[in-house]
Structure formats: C-alpha cells, structure tokens
Amino acid sequence: MNALPDSIRVLERGWLSSNNIMLLGRHDTAIIDTGYVSHAPQTLDLVRHVLHGRHLDQILNTHLHSDHCGGNAILQAHFGCQTSIPVAEADKVRHWDVEALSFKATGQRCDRFSFDATIAPGDVLKLADMEWQALAAPGHDPHALIFYCPQEKVLVSADALWENGFGVIFPELDGKSGFAEERATLDLIAGLEVRMVIPGHGAPFSDIAGALARARSRLDYLAADPVRNAQNALKVLLKFLLLERQRIPLADVPTLLTSMPVFAAANHNYLKQTPEALGQWAASQLVRSAAARVEGEYLLNV
Question: What's the whole-model pTM score?
C-alpha cells in the first residue's frame, strides 16, 4: 500500500513554490518547507485550512532556497512557531547575510525570518508521533537535508530527487563540485528502504527505482558537459522570473539575467556569451518547450 498516513499531508504547489509537507501529530504539528514569498498569503491560508484550528508548532526547512523558505516569515508572525534550519546556514540567517544566502545570487526574494534551532545530518527528529532521520543531501545545494521516516518508509527528498530528475546543480555554476555530491546523494537514497517519496516539486511517487534511474541518466548527461548544466540553469532562472512576474519585456531579459551573480559566474565559467545572445537563446528555449510565448515586445509565462 502506497498511501501516506493521515498524519502526513502534502500541499502540492506549483513550480514557483515548493511543496509544503504538513505533519499532524496527536500533540504537535509541523510544516516542512514553506514556498515562495509571493505565495506567502496563500501558504498561510492553506496551512490554516489543514490545521483546522490547531496551532502550528514548528517550521523545518530542507534548505534555504527562496522557494522553500519564503513563507517562513508570515507563518512565524501568525503562529509564533519554532523554526529549524540546516546547521550550516545558521550564521547567514542570524546576520541576514544577503551575499551568503542564495536569494540575491539568483535574483529572487525572501522576507527576513529568524530561527530557533538547527538541524544537522544524523539528527533524529520526533515529528507527528514518528521519528525522522535528517540526512545530508548535497548536490543541488551543498547544505541541503532530506528527511527519512523508517517507520513509514517515507522520504522527504526536497530537490535531491524528483520523479523526473532533480534541482539545478548550483555549485557547479560557480566552478565548485556538485555532480559528485548529487551522485552520492542518489546512492544514499538508493540504500534506504523507501516506499513513497515526497519531492520538493511534483506529486509524491512510489517508483523509486525508476526515479533514481532517470536521475542518474540526467546526471550523467549534465556531468559529461558542464555547459549543459549552465544552460539548464539559465532556462530555469528565467522561467522562475516568469512564474513570479508573468510577463517580462524581451529587452529586459539580458539585464535581468546578468544581474544575477550565479548566472554571471555560470557565463564566465562555461557559457561565455554576450548577455544579448544568452537572453535571446533562453527566451527561445522557453518558447520552444511551450513554457513561454512571445506577444509583441513581451515574454509571457505559459
């Protein structure tokens, strides 16, 4: 049987916001990941609906990309709940170091939030009457965590494993190692007894072997030529902007892309194109894949 227990509720969101995983215990409640800031009021409404008058006790973040923690501030303000973040991110959040946090680097937004506790790889958390193991999952993000419940054989995989792939391998854009770490994370997941994966984006799935095979094939393809990873990141970053803004003047695309430090690094290390050429290429790729369309002087989200 692959159904999740009643104590685990998955709020499947669109690609702008990560999924929200609600854990409803007899005496405690928690949420894993809180979506993007522009969806924060909707996140609050969804959480309140699921809680049915109960209090939210905890927020836990798998990693601190903006689409996973953008609802932290509004939930903290409404519920006064405790928040736990990956231990490696503590100083960045404590001092709200916008240079070290990923928001500025990717041209994204996040309301400032605080934290009460940290989670380290190897920690065991008691949530919703179940024990969850926090496991290191570098690759997409060097400090990311995934959460595994042996009792239910459920894995919250964040962006380390989706049904069809995984998140952009961001460290590689800056010339750092990420492909090897993603491969090790996939090997770690393969060694767990999992019957259901709750990914950071997309519906929960039970074909873990198939997902791992697709992820490994994708990783081999990207690692064989790092330019492919940079090109993929370029398309993803532009699509994210479109998801948030819905329409962007075509003339603004090159400037928007080059204003992102992570993209500037990827262009310097791998792509080596003019902003105009890359902007035109990225827009055309989104149109080609039916993820966007051009109307007059604007690129529109689809």
Answer: 0.96
